[in-house]
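tool_call predict_complex ligand=NDP
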Amino acid sequence: MQNMVILGATGSIGASTLSVITQNPDKYAVYALVANASVDKMLALCLAHQPVFAHMVDQQAAIKLKLALPSSSKTIVTSTPEELTALVTHSDVDTVMAAIVGAAGLVPTFAAVKAGKRVLLANKEALVMSGELFMQTAKASGATILPVDSEHNAIFQCMPQAVQNNLGFCDIASEGISHILLTGSGGPFLTTDLTILPNVTPDQACNHPNWSMGRKISVDSASMMNKGLEYIEARWLFNTTPEQLKVVIHPQSVIHSMVQYKDGSVLAQMGNPDMRTPIAHCMSYPQRISAGVEPLDFFKVGQLSFLEPDFNRFPCLKLAIEACQQGQEATTVLNAANEIAVEAFLQGRIKFTDIAVVNEQCLVSVNRSALKSIEDIIALDSDARQLALSKIKALG
Ligand SMILES: NC(=O)C1=CN([C@@H]2O[C@H](COP(=O)(O)OP(=O)(O)OC[C@H]3O[C@@H](n4cnc5c(N)ncnc54)[C@H](OP(=O)(O)O)[C@@H]3O)[C@@H](O)[C@H]2O)C=CC1
Ligand SMILES: CC(=O)[C@@H](O)[C@H](O)COP(=O)(O)O
Ligand SMILES: [Mn+2]
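tool_result ok
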């Protein structure tokens, strides 16, 4: 039996994880559920899964949850940052699903890594901000990192055992690999007339053609910043050089990524676009369990197609690839700026096309210094957020 903590339990990945747990009750137990402020969702999850702990980052939400739980409930409600660290590092915990959205996921995810847990990593922003330190810390603590993000999970599945056993420090060339092909759908605006892009609405941006996801990652898919963040994520997980990592647009999201070997072989992982597949893979690795996912029907899929990304349409992808080349400071700044810009777009304060403008302005002008610790990274993240807010204000 694996005892699990689910960071981001009320979100899309949280729901998929709990669905896989429900289908495999003999293998997994819910130790703790963690969210920010969604009291009603958390209450429903507590009643259904009866975790030992329910943690709400928002203190008012924690108070409301305590009042709403029936007196018969044994779930303990917590709320302070110290209590959250204690939860994820507790000796009873085997596995932590890291699925808080954005930079907010960094501290608890990093605590789980430092404590040597089995960490199922969906929160790509944590790796974008702290990749080098994250992988070094995992090596030192003996934590097992398993990639949940569908592309990275696909790449992982197409890698030889030696790479799977040495994430972050592998030499993929010596394993006969020439390239990783990171696939992306191109999102809802792949063929939209460029003159219309400044006027698209948040709901249109969140209307992903293939995946049902939270709003932040959905906007990132629409701008292809998601693929940029994933490019950086892949760089750290698979220790790649720029020449070893290529982005391919694949609008159907049936192939979740590929690995090209020097003998000409290309290994691809495929499946219906349903996050329960990579989640179940990570939960049971190296075994396999049922995930409740419909088998892929190739006759229904019909055609698979591939395109080269157009940086004119998707400037955020170019910015992220450039930031990855520049290093950890640049990727931390870009991630922070993007979170602020996406939130402003979702609130109707800036245009969709302004997201790339804010990101670029922050990337060129933030004051960067060497990042040696999580505290340094958080300080830079905070500065970049302030800068992004000032850039948004200046846009009018
Ligand atoms: N959805 C998907 O298919 C995929 C997602 N990912 C990654 O997984 C992560 C989660 O995405 P997704 O599930 O779509 O996001 P959602 O928006 O659906 O869920 C976000 C979760 O994070 C919680 N949260 C938000 N802010 C905080 C905070 N400050 N402290 C603690 N918890 C917080 C939310 O709690 P509350 O409800 O209380 O606000 C919620 O549980 C992201 O990093 C995303 O990039 C990666 C691949 C695929
Ligand atoms: C499901 C998942 O992993 C997402 O990150 C997904 O890849 C988003 O789709 P895009 O390929 O459009 O970014
Ligand atoms: Mn992905």
